[in-house]
Every structure is written in C-alpha cells, then in structure tokens.
Design goal:
The chain is an alpha+beta fold and 273 residues long. It is built from six helices and 14 strands. A hairpin with a 2-residue loop joins strand 3 and strand 4. It starts with a strand and ends with a strand.
Length: 273
C-alpha cells in the first residue's frame, strides 16, 4: 500500500524559515532508516504559499489566486511517500518523525493512495487501465563468475542503496542438486536504489559469460557526488570515457568496474526536446 505522509505547515514554514542543521540531519537519518527498510519512495518539502497560487474553477472557468493563504494549519509544508503493508505500518513510521522538527510540535497527516482496484469496472476505468500497460518495475540483472557478493556489497557502499537480499545456492530447496562448491555462491541478490533494483547472481562453470553490450546508468543532480561515484567504480577498472562535460550533459563518463560491469554516470543530462 502506498501512503502520503504530509507535514502540515506552521508559521515558520509559511515565513520561509529554512530547517536548521540539526533538523536537516535528523530528517536525513529518518529517511535513511526508511530507505534501508525499503518503505521510502521519496519526498520533498514545499516552499511557502506566498510563492505559489491556486487555480480555482467556477463553471469551468479558471481563476488564478496568488498566495499567501490563510488557515496555516491546513496547508502543506512537505511530504513523504511510503510503500508499506498496512495503515498500522505507516503510522509506526509516522510516529518516528524527528523530534528536532519544530521542537517536537508538528502535525502529520497520512492518506492512502487510490488504486484502480478500488473502483468498479466501467468503460472509463478501462481507459485508465489501458494507460497502465507499463510493467510495475523494470530491473537490471547481471551475472558474475563467483564474486557476486563482493560486487553487490561494493555497489551498496558506493550508491548508498539497500542490499535487501543475498541468497546462496546452499540456502535454497535445490541445494542438494547443486555441486558443493556452489553452495556459498549467490543465486539471487537485490540492491534497492530508490525503488529501482540491481539484481545479480553467480553463474556456474560454463554458464558464466562476461556482460557485453549493456551498461548501468546512474544520474546524479550533484556534480561532486557523480564524480565520486565514477571514481569509485573506476578504481581497478577501465575508464571507457572520462567523466567530463559533453554537449548533452554537464558531466558524463563511462567505465568498466573491477567486476567487469559497465557503468554510465551522468550529471545534469539534457532532456531531448
């Protein structure tokens, strides 16, 4: 189930007071805990209503009303999107909201997202379903020749993702059908990076072939962070294209890491018009 956890506005947020260093750090730790638990989809703060507007329709005609707006406690200062199993789970996470925020005096609101399954079948609903033909997820799976665990732990460290699964052949019901030397090799691993997954496994004997013709692409907003990741992945590897400014991105580079996996790292890539 997907929930929006909304942080209601107060006098400070409506006056544009930025969070202190303590609050920023506490919120970062809170988001990190939710990321590691696999429930944090994303979130942002929003600027004061004095910098926004409302578009009000009367008889189908729009009127733009500039902020600021009254009833501060009804307004929104920020939100997080959580993917959890129940309302109770969402409440448990909401209760862990950092006490540093407004001295522990904040109001939060939880609202569950609608899904198409909440509606009775109708022609209009069919139109919405037709717009959802895309798969629920698209993940990347890479093969390794015996060092999958080392590689995935390295990728988790470099990207800050959550290594949510590392399962060996010996831990599966098929263990007795697998050669003993493969029991400590990885049959499935999953690195969750903000809801996208890099999966990997060790291939036995002749089944392993080095990856060719495909790269994993990571896009970063921060130039220095993108460069740090590029350097880390390039260490003991082979740089294919230096991390430099290009005509399509502020920075872009390609490298093969020490495990034979190819990466593309970009910063502020230009969107095609």
């Amino acid at each position: 189930m997907k929930y929006m956890l909304m942080r209601k506005a107060d006098a400070d947020t409506e006056n544009g007071v930025l969070p202190s260093e303590d609050i920023l750090g506490a919120m970062a730790d809170y988001n990190e805990r939710m990321t590691q638990a696999g429930v944090f989809v994303g979130g942002d703060g929003v600027r004061p209503t004095s910098e926004g507007c409302r578009i009000q329709f009367r008889n189908g005609e729009p009127t733009v009303i500039s902020g600021p707006f009254d009833n501060t406690n009804e307004l929104l200062a920020g939100y997080s999107v959580l993917e959890v199993d129940s309302l109770e789970d969402a409440i448990d996470w909401a209760k862990q909201w950092p006490r540093e925020d407004a001295g522990g005096n904040v109001t939060l609101e939880l609202r569950r997202y609608f899904t198409l399954e909440d509606f009775e079948p109708t022609p209009a609903l069919d139109k919405h379903r037709a717009q959802q033909k895309l798969p629920q997820e698209m993940n990347v799976h890479v093969a390794f020749g015996g060092n999958c665990r080392e590689a995935m732990e390295f990728y988790a460290e470099v990207t800050g993702g959550n290594l949510e699964a590392v399962i060996t052949y010996g831990e599966t019901p098929a263990a007795e059908d697998v050669p003993a030397e493969m029991h400590d090799r990885v049959v499935h691993s999953s690195l969750n990076i903000r809801g996208r997954r890099l999966m990997g496994a060790d291939m036995a004997g002749d089944c392993y072939q080095p990856p060719q013709g495909a790269q994993i692409h990571l896009e970063y907003e921060d130039t220095e962070q993108a460069e740090r990741v590029f350097r880390a992945l390039s260490e003991e590897g082979l740089v294919i294209m230096p991390f430099e400014q290009t005509f399509w991105a502020n920075r872009f580079g390609m490298t093969t890491d020490r495990f034979g996996i190819q990466w593309m790292i970009s910063n502020e890539i230009e969107q095609c018009q």
